[in-house]
Amino acid sequence: MMRPILVLLVARLAGTIGPSTLYAAVSLELLHTASLVHDDVVDESTERRGQLSVNAIYNNKVSVLSGDYLLATSLIYAGRTKNLDIIQVVSRLGQDLADGELLQLSNVSNHSFSEDVYFDVIRKKTAALFAACTHSAALSAGMGVPHADAARLLGEYIGVCFQIKDDIFDYFDSEKIGKPTGNDMMEGKLTLPVLYALNTYGDEQAKSVAIKVKDGLATPDEIGYLIEYAKEKGGIEYAAKVMGEYKQKALNILAELPTSEIRSSLEAYLHYVTDREI
């Protein structure tokens, strides 16, 4: 429940938490869950954080309909906020999540290794959700436009950190994470560590394997080779450095706030995002 927690923490910066804040938190968590159920169908994933996905337990038809039901319920709770600005935030988020998924699918089919496209995808698929949480929290608490904009930016930076950390996980084997090593590459996705290695060192063999990954033709051994290549060329360190830069941007926003327990809690939240093991 990281996202609703973020909604509540940001709203508390302005004082007490009212019904519109709670409804916004529920709406965004439901929309997040709906997107995960649909993503597992699109990606043909059978696990989600170490548990069987809905499509693995039932089938794609049940998964799509379940996701649709969660999405509709999310919009009902957005409406209960009685705040048109929050309803617009939630609606735009639904567009961003779908747009991000389409952008990711189109990127799989091309043979470029663009960091810019990578960041476009994660901003829409992950960072947009965290930004919607902090933005809607600020709106529900009656913060003015400058503070609401700063809150939205804080959420975006947190979301970028969250996704880069998740992508780093994919290069290591751990039962805690709940997905096999190289799962992203099995789905044709190249993430920041390997993109850095490919663009910095230009090894033709590695590029050839990367293209096979994008075409869905790479063997498990080839994926293993590309993972080790990214590690050997400093891809993990580079990704961690970029994540640290976004973390610092978020900390800079928090540093503008008066010292308080809520500010400390938001700082701890940010540290958890970048230091977590699952």
CATH superfamily: Farnesyl Diphosphate Synthase
Reported by name, the CATH topology is Farnesyl Diphosphate Synthase
CATH class reads: Mainly Alpha
- Give a count of the beta strands, DSSP E runs of length 2 or more: 2
Integer tally of domains: 1
Number of helical runs?
13
How widely separated are the two ends?
14 Å
Family: Belongs to the FPP/GGPP synthase family.
Keywords: Magnesium, Metal-binding, Transferase
Protein name: Octaprenyl-diphosphate synthase
InterPro entries: Isoprenoid_synthase_dom_sf (IPR008949), Polyprenyl_synt (IPR000092), Polyprenyl_synt_CS (IPR033749)
Write structural notes for this entry:
- 76% of the residues lie in helices and 1% in strands.
- The protein has helices at 2-12, 19-43, 54-57, 60-80, 84-108, 115-140, 145-169, 183-186, 192-201, 204-214, 220-232, 235-255, 261-275, and strands at residues 47-48, 51-52.
- It has a two-stranded antiparallel sheet.
- Helix 2 runs parallel beside helix 5 (84-108).
- The longest helix has 26 residues, at 115-140.
- The radius of gyration is 19 Å and the shape is globular.
- It starts with a helix and ends with a helix.
- This is Octaprenyl-diphosphate synthase.
- GO terms for molecular function: metal ion binding; prenyltransferase activity.
Quick description:
With 278 residues, this protein is mainly alpha-helical. It has 13 helices and 2 strands.
